[in-house]
Structure formats: C-alpha cells, structure tokens
Amino acid sequence: MNRVKSTFSIKNLENLSGIKAHTLRIWEKRYNLLKPERTDTNIRRYSLESLKKLLNITLLYNHGFKISKIANLDIDDIPELVRNVALKSNTEQVSINAFKLAMINFDCELFDANYEEILQHHNFKYVFIQIFMPLMRELGILWQTGAISTTHEHFLTSLIKQKIHLQTETLQHNNYVNSNNPTFVLFLPENEIHELGILYLNFLILSKGHRTIFLGQSIQISSLETLYSYDTKFNFVTYLTVEPNKEEIMFYLEDFYRKVLDDRKSKLLLFGPQQTAINITNLPNQIELYRSLESFISKYFPKNVFA
C-alpha cells in the first residue's frame, strides 16, 4: 500500500489526467504520444515516466495547445514549457494539475513555485478554498481507485500543512488579538488524524482577531476539562472526517456534552463529513453543526465588525 506506484492502467491515467481512455488510445495511435507495455493478457500498462509525460501534455492541452502541436514538440522542451504555463495561469484547474504534477514527481520546487505564483495574485484563503480543497478531494478519489499511492498523498498533504503552519505563524506574530473575544479551542477527537480542515480553521479564526488554543490530533474528552482552570467559556471546534464513526458519534456527543458543556457557557462547533450521521433531534443548543465555512463566518465574524 505504501510503495510508490511504478506502473499504471489506462483507467489510472484517465483518472489522473481527466482525459478519457478512448481519447488516450487515439493520441497513442495517431501521435505516438504514449508507449505502453503489454501484459501477458495484452492489457496496457504505463510507466511512471509515461504518466509524467501525460500530465505535462494534459496541462498544455487544457491551456489551449493543440494536441498536434504538442506531439511535434521536442520531448526535452515540454517540462520547461509546462512550468511556464502553470506558473502564469490564473485558472484553478491548471493550478491543481500543476500541483498533481509536482506530487507525481515528488517535486517540492515545482510545488513552491506554483504556490508562490498564485499568492502574487490571491490571498491564502483563495489558495486553500479554491485550489487545495478541490485538490485534496481529487486525491481522495485517486487514492481510493488506486491511481496514486499513500506515499503520493502524504507527500502533498505534508507540503500543504507546511504552508498553513507558515501562514498561521505569521498571523500569531503580527496580528492583534482582542482579549475580549471568546477563545476558540481547536482539536480532533480520539483516533482522528486528518488535520487539514482544523489547521485551516485555526488560521481563519486567528485572522479574525480571536485567540485560539490549538490542541491537534486525537484528543480525549476528559483532557479538555482541564481548560476550565484557564477560563470559564470556550468555543470548542472540531473537524470530523472519519472519527467518531457513524455508530459511535451520538454517544461521543452525549459524553462531550455531559463532561464539557453541561451547566457551562461553552459551545461545540462541528465541521466535517461525519456530521451527516448526527441525529439533530433533541441536539443541545450548545452543539452547532456547520456544513460550510460561509455559515460559520457569517455567524461568528460579521462583516460589519471584522475586516
């Protein structure tokens, strides 16, 4: 599971590039763009180099280059042309494809260059919401279908986390925090390790002038009670990607309410896909569900108060 994939099916290539398998076969036959090997049962298998070449071709093709022109390019000139196109593009999908290309090549320099180019035209919120989030959704599908390995996903996720940490550190050093604002405590439940959502929420809340206490992954409910020695009111924030599972989530919320919220002024704000398993009937008012960042922002950071 953790090994880097070295051969790919035509379906893998279709999923990664967005180009239909039928079109890929035409390109292969008409323009000799790809050269698959054949298994004993005559099934096409493509090398990692073929995949890299296809991602380059796809990026140029999606940016308006005709496939006949691409086919006539010197193969050694294509990577540099791709970098120039990717770094100058203002479209989200081209940027997403450039990040996927960086992932397949384990190319930190391409990732950083693409990221810095986008930041010259947009803020970090745009990069995360419009590019990183759709990118991670695509990667989830690619991983489930076997088009990429865990190694690829972890490589890209670690680079995205790195950018969030850098942006957050800058905020912590430079932003004024209003001590009269309520403190947000950000954490993930036990066995939940998917951090991207909660990391971005921490950045977002800090950017609005609120103090945060970031606790990270796999936090026991009982350990949260100790925070009341610091203050009497908190907005607890968590992001449920896979845990607690659907069978346990209501028991988790009942336990959380009893130990952390009952007879107190604090709230629990829930994000993430697992909230769809929550039975909202008789859910305490202190537990709030948010399907979107916009609804959260409009309630806690109204525009007439915060920039």
Q: Describe it for me?
A:
The chain has helices spanning 10-17, 21-31, 48-62, 67-71, 78-88, 92-104, 108-119, 124-144, 150-174, 196-207, 221-224, 249-261, 293-300, and strands spanning 7-8, 37-38, 44-47, 183-189, 212-219, 234-239, 267-271, 287-289. With 307 residues, the protein is α/β, with parallel strands linked by helices. It folds into two domains: 7-167, Multidrug-efflux Transporter Regulator, Chain: A, Domain 2, CATH 1.10.1660.10; 175-300, 3-Layer(aba) Sandwich (Rossmann fold). The strands form two sheets. The protein has a five-stranded parallel beta sheet. A three-stranded antiparallel beta sheet has the order 1-3-2. α10 (196-207) links the parallel β4 and β5 (212-219). α5 packs across α6. 30% of the residues are buried.
Mean pLDDT: 85
Structural class: alpha/beta
Q: Please, how many helices?
A: 13
Low-pLDDT residue spans: none
CATH topology of the largest domain: Multidrug-efflux Transporter Regulator, Chain: A, Domain 2
CATH level 1 name of the largest domain: Mainly Alpha
Index terms:
2 domains, alpha/beta, five-stranded parallel beta sheet, 13 helices, Multidrug-efflux Transporter Regulator, Chain: A, Domain 2, Rossmann fold
Q: How is this fold's topology laid out?
A:
Blueprint: E1 7-8, H1 10-17, H2 21-31, E2 37-38, E3 44-47, H3 48-62, H4 67-71, H5 78-88, H6 92-104, H7 108-119, H8 124-144, H9 150-174, E4 183-189, H10 196-207, E5 212-219, H11 221-224, E6 234-239, H12 249-261, E7 267-271, E8 287-289, H13 293-300
Parallel strand pairs: 4-5, 4-6, 6-7, 7-8
Antiparallel strand pairs: 1-3, 2-3
Helix pairs in contact: 3-5, 3-6, 5-6, 5-7, 6-7, 6-8, 6-9, 8-9, 9-10
